[in-house]
Each structure stands twice: as structure tokens, then as C-alpha cells.
Amino acid sequence: MLRAGIWSHYINDDIAARLMACEEKCFEFNTLPPSRLVERRAIIESLLGGIRQPFTIHSPFHCDFGFNIRIGSGFVGNYNLTILDEAEVCIGNNVFIGPNTGIYTVEHAFDAAQRSEGIMKARPVTIGNDVWICANTIILPGVTIGDGAVVGAGSVVRHDIPPHTFAAGNPCRTIRAITADDKATDIID
Questions:
Q1: What is the spatial distance between Cα 138 and Cα 145, in angstroms, rounded to a whole number?
Q2: Are 86 and 106 spatial neighbours (Cβ–Cβ below 8 Å)?
Q3: How many Å apart are CA 149 and CA 144, to the nearest integer?
Q4: Coil, strand, or helix at residue 126?
Q5: What 8-state DSSP symbol labels residue 83?
Q6: What is the spatial distance between Cα 132 and Cα 13, in angstroms, rounded to a whole number?
Q7: What angle do the packed helices 37-47 and 13-31 form, to 10 degrees?
Q8: How far apart are CA 118 and CA 10, in angstroms?
Q9: Catalytic sites, residue numbers
Q10: What does pTM read for this prediction?
Q11: DSSP 3-state helix, strand, coil percentages of the chain (rounded to 5)?
């Protein structure tokens, strides 16, 4: 029911056990040296609901459940990526996520007494193909980021971002379309 977007009580032993099991796997992943690539990849593949090779996830990485996260190929998650996946998080192919980024699907009740009782709901997050999310970005519940979009550093994404646009700010807003003029020139090999 948490994934259904319905306000409800979500503090119970089953959820606590699932959170602890995920935290254990994240801890194991984060304490392995980068040179132990095979073991690190095996942990991520067992933790997430789906991820396609090739992928890179730098430590530290944190998530709540893991099984609600699906990631396409060519993914790069930089240092300190946090995904609170009480609802589904779908990330497309060739997505780059900068350091210190948070993707959040859960919403707690505003009323203090309800919040203390564990009243919450969750909404999914979808990130299309070929997206670049720059450092220190926060993506809030229910957001869809379209294919080919770029989200500027330090943004707080509260609303959907259209495909092939550059968006930035707090709150994040579409700045302009990404066009052929944005192609890098004078590339040195």
C-alpha cells in the first residue's frame, strides 16, 4: 500500500525488518574497496529490483528497500547517492547522477501527531534515458524527468521536467530547450 500513494500507517515489524536488511547490504557495499568490483556489483544486483550492465555506483550509496529501484544500462551514480524507494524508482539508460543527490518517493504527514504515528504515502519517480542530474540535486516524490534532460546543480525538482530541456533552481524550472548548438566542439582526443 505504501506504493499506492494512500496515506496510511507504515511503522511495523515487517517494514522495519526490510529496511534493516537493505541497510545491511548498503553497509556491506559501502565498506568494500572499489577494487573489489565483482563483489560490489553482485551486492548491487542482489539489492536492486533490476539493473543492467554496464553500471557504476560509487560509495557511499544508500536506499531504503532496493527492490523498488530499476536502472537501465550505462548508469553512473556518483558519490553519496541516496534513493528512498518506498515507491518505484525507474531510471533509464545512460543516466548520469552527480554527487550528493537524493531521490525521494516518500511523503510524511505534515501534522506532527500523525507523522509520529508513521502516517505516510509514496509516489513513484521516473527518470528517462540520457539524463544528466548534476550534483546536490533533490528529486521529490511523483516527479518524471524526460529523456535527454539536464538538471542543474543544487536543484530541487518538485515538478516534471520536459524531455530535452535544461532545468535548474529551487524550485527547479525549465530554463531552455537543449539544441544542436549545445554540442561540444573542438574535442581533443
A1: 12
A2: yes
A3: 11
A4: strand
A5: E
A6: 37
A7: 160
A8: 5
A9: 108
A10: 0.95
A11: 20, 30, 45
